[in-house]
Write a structure and sequence with these properties.
Two copies of one chain form a homodimer. Chain A has 17 helices and 19 strands. Chain A is an alpha/beta fold. In chain A, the strands form four sheets. In chain A, strands 13-12-1-5-3-17-18 form a seven-stranded antiparallel sheet. In chain A, strands 7-6-11-10-9-8 form a six-stranded parallel sheet. Chain A has a four-stranded mixed sheet with strand order 16-14-15-19. In chain A, β9, α12 and β10 form a beta-alpha-beta unit.
Amino acid sequence: MSKENPGWRGAPPVEGAARDELALFTDLYELTMLQAYFDEGMMEDAVFSLFVRRLPARRNFLLSCGLDTVLGYLESLYFSDDDIAYLRSLDKFSERFLAWLRDLRFTGEVRAVPEGTPMFANEPILEVAASLPQAQLVETFVMNQIHLQTVLASKAQRLVTAAQGRPVIDFGPRRMHGIDAALKAARAFYIGGVAATSNVLAGKRYGVPVAGTMAHSYIQAHNDETAAFAAFARRYPGTVLLVDTYDTMAGVHKVVELAKTLGENFRIHAVRLDSGDLLTLSREARDVFDAAGLNRIDIFASGGLDEDAIADLVAADAPINGFGVGTAMGVSSDAPALDIAYKLTEYAGRGRLKLSSGKPVLPGSKQIFRAEKDGQDVGDTIARATEDGPGRPLLVPVMRDGKRLPAGRVDLEAIRHHAQAQIARLPVPVRQITAADPIYPVTVSAQLARFQRDIEQEIDG
Amino acid sequence: MSKENPGWRGAPPVEGAARDELALFTDLYELTMLQAYFDEGMMEDAVFSLFVRRLPARRNFLLSCGLDTVLGYLESLYFSDDDIAYLRSLDKFSERFLAWLRDLRFTGEVRAVPEGTPMFANEPILEVAASLPQAQLVETFVMNQIHLQTVLASKAQRLVTAAQGRPVIDFGPRRMHGIDAALKAARAFYIGGVAATSNVLAGKRYGVPVAGTMAHSYIQAHNDETAAFAAFARRYPGTVLLVDTYDTMAGVHKVVELAKTLGENFRIHAVRLDSGDLLTLSREARDVFDAAGLNRIDIFASGGLDEDAIADLVAADAPINGFGVGTAMGVSSDAPALDIAYKLTEYAGRGRLKLSSGKPVLPGSKQIFRAEKDGQDVGDTIARATEDGPGRPLLVPVMRDGKRLPAGRVDLEAIRHHAQAQIARLPVPVRQITAADPIYPVTVSAQLARFQRDIEQEIDG
């Protein structure tokens, strides 16, 4: 527990695999390259930069997420005897190398933008500076987690934007890609502005608020829908009743009947619509409730919703007070993957890049400067780390000598607040769920551009 | 270890969270419903059926996957004291209920199709028969894992089909959705016909072959591309050299020079192309190698490949000997989610369904019969479990009294063989990556249709 940030919980002890198995969560080529570096004595310092090459269609920015997980991994990275035994069985590694690997720990430096920072194409989300083998080895895990969590936080922010202040609840665990994704999602969604999750383990692990209503099976298991409503309402005053199991409007009328029967004891908070034409049904249900004097019953909607469906409902002024969102948010259906890269930009004091078609790399350690005018962000400059730039620098040291610095220990509420505040500073068109025109301006500094040209010429020469 | 299936490894001890935390991997409403069932004394037997309502666009079938994980979870499901303490903190649960939950174990029955079975819309992949609370509680985990692994196995099978015998290698861990997804993927892909994975932990855990080449960073870290090739080739005879870091064809020529320099000691297996126009580059590289007498050097391609890109390359007769596939397979980019459902179909001896718009449920325990003609599958019938049907039944008991039966312990090689054999029995158009017309015929038996109508009338009445 950090003294500076008493709410910080640290990375959890398990991350999709027991913590002590994670060293092997790597691509085989990382280990064969490590052995080659070891044999060739290539142990000097390297810098790797993690960035997204292009934003997905219709996206104006991404919301960075996943740093806490990465730092937790780096702090505890090691190969167990069991791992070494498996590697030995592959018949690719020398005993000298395996002995060295057994003792390897991450002792490098990480600079990163805080979680919950809006990011644009080619901007480094984090940079790892460490001996070449250390910085190389961690590629797979670092990319996997920053990618996943950034995909999810970025998507969630779009649904929250579309809902214009109505709460969005995460109902996605059943269709997300595995346990790790569903856990990290609840945290990433909360950073993106989602109000609560249905995922109980995520609630326990991260302290995210948990919420839920009832399933169709509960209604079906009773021989009578009204009896099911009555039993659940008695057990859970202030609950939400699911009304679409058989016929939505008939279900709504049964809720009204229940209100009459229970009188003062009727304390239902809301009904949930989960299928059909949500606009029409929400209006009809609202009319029925209002006519019965049940103005205080809220209407909650779910069922295949994405940001466009929510925006349409909001634009049509649908009387819906909150949204439950599952699959579209849970797998980021319009953009389930980002063109993310983790690239060597410096080795042994020399800038490095590649020239592969369509995949350029900006060399060296970098900084992003975000310029503002009248409290609004107006443009970014990607510069060399040693430059002074126009605006505030976004990358800060979060780990040194393999240990977290205070900026690497931020509690979840603070990250959520940071995200909302940073998003609010973006130009209005950039904050929308439709493509901004013009896009947010990001330029490369003259110094960095010159450095890039110099190295290209070195390679060509 | 099962005597019947000596190669079976059992579900691993961790699954995206420590095994002993998984009971809380559930939607909150499962637990509130459980408490309501408990209070109402609704403890009779229930049947839940898991199926996919619709196939994604362009998909002719799905490949079932994930059963082993589900059975491992059901065998070991329990709430720890720590879990109970967290639930208590939510202030929603009675001490009586929590004490009961603390002792809950899964003691029910599971019937399922074997992993690696081609499946169609509305066909049950598995059915859980247990006391209502037990069968309800497991919904979130069961759906999450069958969904994830079926999504991935189904996608992999398409890439393997497109590659027409050329090996497909999984390079996806860095962009898959989390650690759990990347681990389960390697296993699911192997079932779908993928040859190997880059994921070392998956290799250790599941025994899937591991493979890899080299990254751009290895080339970049050397001051000279030829020196990098020479060093790696010396260390790893039979390796694959990545030639596109700076200029692909220049890289190819450097490999030829290296062959001349090393003479008999040159034992490179292949080069990898990772960017640019793979068709043109592969032809040019092939020509250069052949002209230099290096006919035995293979060409391996990667970089944003999906099944369509591979099919195009194969159709154009590109001289490519194998494919490395990452993101498109790893997140199933064209269909990252399925319309999967886990629905109550029977409670207390009575068939159950729902009538929600567009989301019908077939009541009761069911069986799928797959009919064949001349060694080819020609059509399925979804029937009541008690019926005899035309063809072989697909659902078999895999768990009874909470314990696995022999059919629930199948080793990975056997599952992979089963999948390939079952796919080979499908009609040729159904096996293709383009939409079959007509689609594979699936009908509901007369008895099941009558049963469904009877229950609908009961509800309407």
